[in-house]
Amino acid sequence: FETVAAGGGKIIQVVQGLKDDTWTSSTSQTWEDVTDLTVTTATLASSSSTVLVYANFFGGGVGDYTYCKVVDGSGSDITGFVGASVGSRTACSSGNFYMAGLTAADYMNMNINGNSGMWLDSPGVTTAQTYKVQMWCASATTHYFNRSKGDGDSLYYGRPASTITAWEIGA
Fold first, then answer.
1. E strand or H helix at 105, and its extent?
2. CA distance 124 to 4
3. Which DSSP state fits 77?
4. Residue 53 has pLDDT above 90, yes or no
5. 104 by DSSP, 3-state: which?
6. DSSP letter, residue 6
7. Tally of CA atoms within 13 A in the half-sphere of 128 that contains its CB
8. What was the pLDDT predicted at 99?
């Protein structure tokens, strides 16, 4: 829990990344950048500024567990943006996009799972900050972003948009 001192809280800048097309991958157990879901702030007004990051993303994995996370520009985890990695558990920012017990036809042909999150970063510097969304799947099965597996050309298949937004909040 973080509290901003009285008198602060002015929004200094806002940047947003929008992904309104689709992305797929079949890479196993590797965090991959999702194209278009990267934002970079301008130079921060103060080293006391806080950056509020909000991301909403839509996707799924057909054959195995699939997660997303928000990381810094180098791909490193940001404290508080991912859960604790305990044992072999995967540290991530989202819930699992895959539903065990359902076949690919039942689940991903027409369904798209959404996740969102909001985090506060206190970088303690004035340099520009980069935040990006990455996706990971436990196996080499195809995983999808902004689309279902079936992706049929009919009104029964949806195509959502995903975003990442960063606000610099003055101290």
1. helix 104-107
2. 14
3. B
4. yes
5. helix
6. T
7. 11
8. 54
Residue 149's CB is within 10 A of a number of other CB atoms, namely: 23
Q: Residue 111: exposed, middle, or buried by beta-carbon count in 10 A (0-12, 13-18, 19+)? A: middle
163 forms beta bridges with 18, 56
* Terminal Cα distance for the chain, rounded: 16
- Specify the 3-state DSSP secondary structure of 107: helix
> What tokens were used for 114?
């959404």
Is residue 49 within 8 A of residue 169, CB to CB? The reply is yes
120 touches 80 (CB < 8 A): yes
Q: Which two tokens stand for residue 40?
A: 């970079």
At 43 the pLDDT is 98
Task: Indicate the pTM of the whole model.
Answer: 0.85
Measured CA distances, 106 to 59, 103, 149, 160, 167 (Å)? 15, 5, 10, 19, 39
For β-strands 32-40 and 130-137, DSSP reports them as antiparallel
Strands (E), the chain: 11-19, 23-25, 32-40, 50-61, 66-72, 113-121, 130-137, 143-145, 162-169
The 10s digit of each residue's pLDDT in 106-142 is 444 545 667 888 999 999 999 999 999 998 888 887 8
* Residue listed under structure tokens 């990455």: 134
With tokens 């940001």, the residue in question is 78
E-strand stretches of 66-112: 66-72
